[in-house]
Input
Amino acid sequence: MKKIISTISHNHLASHHLIQEATLMRNHNPVERFFALAPSRKRAIEAMCASCMGCTTNHLEEGFKNEIRNCSSHSCPLYLFRPYKKSENIPPQ
Ligand code: SF4
Output
């Protein structure tokens, strides 16, 4: 009986973790997503540009995607790689 309860409890925790991760994947806050999920270059650039536009782990700046799309800091090293812009602007790898 104890083992059954332990297994149910473990399964409940595992499914809770999966739901949390799925929620974070749908989360539109790139800064929060970067710190909560496995780091990647893409997530790091998204988080950097979002924080540049005022986003933090618990604050989403209104219109931040448009601000990043229309970023005019051509000298920023991330300029060509910033998210939310048209794909034809991405340079070849
Ligand atoms: S590309 Fe623009 S939005 Fe992104 S970090 Fe640089 S200055 Fe900020």
